[in-house]
Structure formats: structure tokens, C-alpha cells
């Protein structure tokens, strides 16, 4: 025994203390935290668009935690291309805590509707003259309150609201109202007299695939049934609502993709980053905004590659980069045009 441990004395009758412990009942507290009845896999699909396949664990019918599933290497696309083990792990702290928001005390448990809007609907949707806009607080919605309403009633309110919009803005009267409200003449080019064309549905952020895009857009198409009901037109002449592309209107998609590739957001296998000798990031914050993929950047560093981060702020990704090029906001294009000029002037480009 080392001299520094000379003061320790053995326990009488116990040769190996690792095989004996007097009271281990307290360990059940920790084991029960991870005890579960069943588990299942699911796709975490928020606005980050990483689509990480995670595993959820439930007990007593309640989801208690989420973990990385480590099965990305088993996934194939429609053409049979298979991922490598390098795609593991997938997931981030947002996905791991998603169930806490689902069961959180501040979650929305029932429909809420603006009090002034409900009063307007109950009064039969009178046309919104300047006086009525003030009366039903369309000009001061931030000062209005929200009232609780049942699920059955909210469906009727939504349906009646859509019918009212479609009726109000259909035909010649609807066109005059739209122009008076500030609609540019160009926006009525494909209006075709249908008030349903003024209803714009946008793919949202939540369940990006199921609800945000497909659900909203399909619902927009079903508004043709409303137009057929309101205007009495044939099935072939009925007009649906309008779809707003979530990314197009946000400017979230880089215009350089269609300029260069002819495709919007063409797929790039992040696995190739592992073998990169140089990674230049511009408009991308791998560490904070691509947390499910930032391990690829770490593997570049492990293999001796260099990281260049171009951003105005010294953020998490800049702190990991070998070179941080700080630029003023909105000068990305000027920088890239300068780089392109140097490449062309020095004949470094493919002719």
C-alpha cells in the first residue's frame, strides 16, 4: 500500500469491499429514472430539416426521454444508396428535449381565439368598414384578449371564416374591394374571380414534412370545394387557394444553387466533409445551427484539414476555425465577386 494511503484501514471480515456494499437501495432511484416499458423510433422533423432518426422511450404511456438511435448506416434512399456509419450520431439537445415541450405546463391545451374576431364572427361577419375594423379590434389586435373555445366549435368558426373570405372577395364586387384595400392589379392576374385565391397557405415550421408542407398545401387545394360551393361553378372551373413556399418567401434558399447547378438545394452528402482538406463556411454556422452534422467538421480537424469561417461575428464556428474572416453584414456577394475575379484573372478556372 502506498505511504499516502497508510491511514486507510481494512474492514473486518471483508477482504474485497468492491464485492460487498451494505445498503444499495438508493440506487433504485437512479435506475427508475431510466426504466421504461417500451421504445419506438421516430423522425425528429423541426425547421432545422436534419430529419434525425431518434428513439423515444415511454413509461405508463408517457414519453420520458429521447436518445440517438445509431442506425443511420442502415438507411437507404429510393435509389438504393446507403449511408455510412460516419453519419452516426444524429440528433441534438433540441430533439432530446422535444417531449418536454409536448408535456410542458405551458403547452397549448385548447383552442384560443381573439375575442374581437369571435364577436365579428358571431355577428355574421359584417363587411370590415373602417368603423367595423375599429369595433372588432382589427386595427389594435395587440390590445385584444384571447378566449377559450371548444374543439368542436373552433372547426365551425374556421370553416365559416374561410367561406366568408371566399364570398367577400369573389366576383366583380370582390375585385373592387381588393383594389380598394391596396391589392396591386398584377396580383389579380390569376385571381379569376375566385375569393379562395386570396387565401394563402404557407408551409410552416413545425412538423415540416407532414403538416408544414404537405398538409398545408393539400388543404389549400381542397379550397376548390369551397369555391365550387360559393360561386356555384363547375368542378373543372373551381379555384383552390394559393401556396406560399416557406423557403422562397423567406429567402432561406441560397440563390447560388440554381445559378450553378440548375437545381434548388441540390443534395450534398455531408459525409464527404470527412475527407475535405479545406472547408470554407459562409452563411453557415455548423456548430450552433447544424448540430446534428457538426461532427463532420470535427472530423476534418481530426484529419488535419483546415477550416475557414466567414462571418461578421466571432461565434462558436469561428472559434473552431483556423482562419476567421470577418466581414460586414450584407457584403457576402462583394467578397465572393472579388474571389471570382482573382480566379479569372489568374486563369485558375476551367475554361
UniProtKB/TrEMBL annotation:
One of its GO terms (molecular function) is oxidoreductase activity. SUPFAM superfamilies: Formate dehydrogenase/DMSO reductase, domains 1-3. Pfam families: Molybdopterin (PF00384). PANTHER family: TRIMETHYLAMINE-N-OXIDE REDUCTASE. The lineage of its organism: unclassified sequences, metagenomes, ecological metagenomes. This is Molybdopterin oxidoreductase domain-containing protein. InterPro entries: Mopterin_OxRdtase, Prok_Mopterin_Oxidored. It comes from marine metagenome. Residues 107-351 form the Molybdopterin oxidoreductase domain.
